[in-house]
Every structure is written in C-alpha cells, then in structure tokens.
Amino acid sequence: MAEINYESLVAELIKPLVTHPEDVKTTSSIDGDKVLVKALVNPDDLGRVIGKKGRVASAIRTIAHAAAIRQKQSLDIEFSANE
Asked: Has residue 14 been placed in a domain?
C-alpha cells in the first residue's frame, strides 16, 4: 500500500474552512505506528477549525483517522494558532 502523507491530508481538509489558507502549516512526526500531526492556522481561523463544541476538529480527526486505520497506524492531530 502507498504511504499516506498525513500533513497534506490534514492541510487539504483545513484550507477550505479558513479565511487565510496561506497561513495553514502542518508538520508530522512518526513514532512506530503512532503519527502526530500538528496543524498551525492563523489565530483568526482557530475557532473555525475547532468549531462549536469541537465538532469540526472532531470531523477532521475522524476522516484522517479512517486513512490511518488502513495503514494500521494511530493518528492524533493537534490544532493551534501560529504566532
């Protein structure tokens, strides 16, 4: 199976939601079968990415998690604002 680029996947899920898509930055680190993706967005867009009661962030995690399961990996995504 082809390796999934989780940074690109998460960035492409976030960019349509924000008003400053050029400020979206993602990094990832892999430790065995665990993947951590850090998504940095413009401070004005952080609320849009998280959503009411975290629903948008949860939906992004669900989609990315489905891709990770196919690779037999666990995935965690952290959202924060760039400085």
From this structure: yes
| Other CB atoms within 10 Å distance of the CB of residue 14 | 23
Q: Based on the structure, what is the number of domains in the chain?
A: 1
Spatial distance between the Cα atoms of 14 and 45, rounded to a whole number of angstroms: 10
Question: How many CA atoms are closer than 13 Å to the CA of 33, on its beta-carbon side?
Answer: 8
CATH of the domain at 13: 3.30.300.20
- Number of other CB atoms surrounding residue 81 within 10 Å: 14
pTM, two decimals, is: 0.90
pLDDT tens string 31-57: 988 999 999 999 999 999 999 999 999
User: Angle at which helices 55-70 and 6-14 pack, to 10 degrees?
Assistant: 150
- State the residue range of the domain holding 44: 6-81
